[in-house]
Amino acid sequence: MEKIIVIKCGGSMIDTLSDDFFIAIKKLQETGFHPIIVHGGGPAINELLENLQIKTEFINGLRKTTKEVMEVVEMVLSGTITNKLVRKLHKHGISSIGVTGSDGGLMYAKPKDVENLGLVGEITRVNQQFLLNLLSIGMVPVISPIAIGMDFEDYYNINADTAAGEVAVAVNAEKVIFVTDVPGVLKDNEIIEKATASEILRFIDDGIISGGMIPKVMAAIHSLKGGMKEAMIVSGHTPLIAGENIIGTTIKRELEAVK
Ligand SMILES: Nc1ncnc2c1ncn2[C@@H]1O[C@H](COP(=O)(O)OP(=O)(O)O)[C@@H](O)[C@H]1O
Ligand SMILES: CC(=O)N[C@@H](CCC(=O)OP(=O)(O)O)C(=O)O
């Protein structure tokens, strides 16, 4: 299937997404694109953990996930946030369906580093056909980044940027767009409009890119290596289909970027 766009909605801005965002998704569909949404929800998970007085900590941008934390992560991501997004999409006339890694065996994972990160997973397989089937009937899949273990019992917390990158590679997407709370990758408060993978890696080394921006750019680089043409990082307040004038950071493969 052609013209698949993976859109990752960061938890940092899910509650402030404007009608324009959903109108843009509708327009994408009307112009022949097949959007897939992968969502995060870090801030909402933090809030519920705090209310429940469960301690949480991040190691290199990943949440150390005990069994107790995992229950909250699944509750917030696959319960509250997926359904919130699906309702908003339907309100804007977009047929959508919320799925987690368990649905249709969508995403399998193995532990990334049990000792230090507990139930944080590394995706081992994405069921591409399941997603293509949903797209072929005009559905927008809204994916919660929880994956299942090969034993069908364990389940894992996946960083949503990483999940979006893996989904993009699996369905051979044209593009992945990371929608977040900043207007792109910033350097000295200015948006870096275009960058290659190697420039991005240098920005990480130099400390220009840090924290939550790291999994985004790493997922972008992973999907470019997997064959995708370009990845973008944009603000949730930027109209997604402003064509050539879309404001944000575009990351391309090396050869294309120098053209
Ligand atoms: N160079 C950079 N440019 C822009 N944002 C950056 C940069 N380095 C670190 N960040 C941080 O990354 C954050 C976005 O990541 P994150 O908070 O995880 O958002 P989301 O919930 O959308 O995934 C920004 O709010 C900013 O604090
Ligand atoms: C392993 C890991 O860190 N998982 C994330 C999943 C949600 C997420 O990635 O949300 P954002 O996109 O809002 O950051 C977490 O537990 O917060």
TrEMBL record:
InterPro entries: AceGlu_kinase-like_sf, AcgluKinase_fam, ArgB, Asp/Glu/Uridylate_kinase. Keywords: Amino-acid biosynthesis, Arginine biosynthesis, ATP-binding, Cytoplasm, Kinase, Nucleotide-binding, Transferase. GO terms for molecular function: acetylglutamate kinase activity. Residues 3-235 form the Aspartate/glutamate/uridylate kinase domain. The keyword Amino-acid biosynthesis applies. Substrate binds at residues 41-42, 63, 157. Pathway: Amino-acid biosynthesis; L-arginine biosynthesis; N(2)-acetyl-L-ornithine from L-glutamate: step 2/4. It is found in: Cytoplasm. It comes from the Bacteria. The keyword Amino-acid biosynthesis applies. Its main location: cytoplasm. It catalyses: N-acetyl-L-glutamate + ATP = N-acetyl-L-glutamyl 5-phosphate + ADP. Its EC number is 2.7.2.8. It is an enzyme of class 2 (transferase). The record marks 8, 216 as: Transition state stabilizer. Catalyzes the ATP-dependent phosphorylation of N-acetyl-L-glutamate. PANTHER family: N-ACETYLGLUTAMATE SYNTHASE, N-ACETYLGLUTAMATE SYNTHASE, MITOCHONDRIAL. Belongs to the acetylglutamate kinase family. ArgB subfamily. This is Acetylglutamate kinase. The gene is argB.
